[in-house]
Amino acid sequence: MPLAVFVLGLSVFALGTSEFMITGLLPGMAADLGVSIPDTGLLISAFAVGMVVGAPLLAIGTLRLPRRRTLLVLLGVFVAAHVVGALAEGYAVLFATRVVAALACAGFWAVAAATTIALVPVDRRGRAMAVLVGGLTVANIAGVPAGTFLGQHAGWRAAFWAVAAVTLVAVAGVAALVPETTGDAISVRGELRLYRRGRVWLALGVIALLQAMIFAAFSYLAPLLTETDGLPESWVPAVLALFGAGALIGITAGGRLADRRPFATLYGCLGLALAALLVLALTTDPLVAVAAVLVFGVAGFGANPALNVRAYQVAGDAPTLVGASTTAAFNVGNTLGPWLGGVAIDAGLGFPSVAWTGIALGVATLAALTVALVVQRTDDRERVTV
C-alpha cells in the first residue's frame, strides 16, 4: 500500500475527530450556549449538510486542479473554521463555522478518495479505502474520546483548538508525502454521466440509509447511556473509545471482505447492527449497553468498505464524482439520522427512542439493499444471455 494512502488516512483522522466529537460534547455545549441538547445535536447535522452540498460541487470545481495543493488549501480552510468556532460567542456563529468546516472537509474527501483510488490497482480498492476511512475509525478510538475528555475538563472550546492543532500536523504530512497529481485527462461531462445510472442511485441510497441508521443512535449515545442506563458521565469517553475500537475491528475485517463479497458483507453488518440497536432500545443495564455499543461500532464501520466498493463497481468511468457522491450520501445519512433522533426525543419518547429510530432506518436499508441485489442479478443474467 503506498505511503501516501496512509498519510491521507491520517489527515482524515483530524477531520473525523471534528465531525464526531460533538457527540461527546453535547451536554457541555448545550449548557454553555444556552440551547437544548437536540439543538446542539443539529451541529452534527450542520456539518453533514455542508458535506452533502460541498462534496459534488467541490469535486467538479477542483476536477483538473493539482490535487496536493487542493488538499492543502482545504485543510487550511478547515483550520481557520475551527479557530473561529473556538472563539464564537453564540450558537449561530458556531453553526456557520461547522458548515464552512464541512465544505472544506467535503472537498478534501472527494480529492483524497480520487487520489487513493488512483494510487492502487482495482483489486485493492477495498483495502485502500479501508485505510482512508480508517482515519475515521482511529478518530473514534482516540480523537473523539480525547476531545470529550478535554471538553469535560477544559471546556468544549479547548477541543476545537486541539482539532486545529492536529490538522496543522496533517497539513505538514500532506505537503511532504502526498505526490502531486492532476485530473487533466478527466472529462467533466463523462463524470456527470454517473447520475444517469439507476444502480448508482441505489448504491447511494443504501449508503445514506445505513449511515442514518448509525447516526440516529450514535449522535445521542452520551445522553442515552447516562440518562437511561445510569452510566456515570466520566465513563462516556471510554465508551466512545470502545465504539471506536469496534469500528477498527469492523473496518479491518470489512476491508478484507468487501472486494470479494460486498453484498454478503453488507447483509452481515446490517444484521449485527440491528441486533445491537435492539439491545440498546430495550436495556437499562449499563454493562449490557456498553457491550452493545462495541458491537454497534463493529457492524456500523464494517459495512463502510463494502459500501464504497459497491459504489465504485457501478460507477464506471467517474472516479472523482463517485467519491464525492458517496461522501455526500454518507452525510445525507449523517444529517437525517441526528435530525430524526432529535425529533423522537422532542416528541417525548425518551432517549431509547433513538435506537428504535435506528431500527426503522435499518429495515429501510435492508429493503433498499435487497432491491439493489435483485437489480444486479437481473443485469448479470441479461449480460450472460446477450
UniProtKB/TrEMBL annotation:
Its membrane topology: Multi-pass membrane protein
TM annotation in the entry: 42-60, 72-94, 100-122, 129-152, 158-179, 200-222, 234-251, 263-282, 288-307, 314-333, 353-375
Domain of life: Bacteria
Matches recorded under InterPro entries: MFS, MFS_dom, MFS_Efflux_Transporters, MFS_trans_sf
Pfam families: MFS_1 (PF07690)
Keywords (A to Z) from UniProt: Cell membrane, Membrane, Transmembrane, Transmembrane helix
Domain Major facilitator superfamily (MFS) profile: start-end pairs: 4-379
Subcellular location, record wording: Cell membrane
Record's protein name: Cmx/CmrA family chloramphenicol efflux MFS transporter
The species this protein was found in: Amycolatopsis melonis
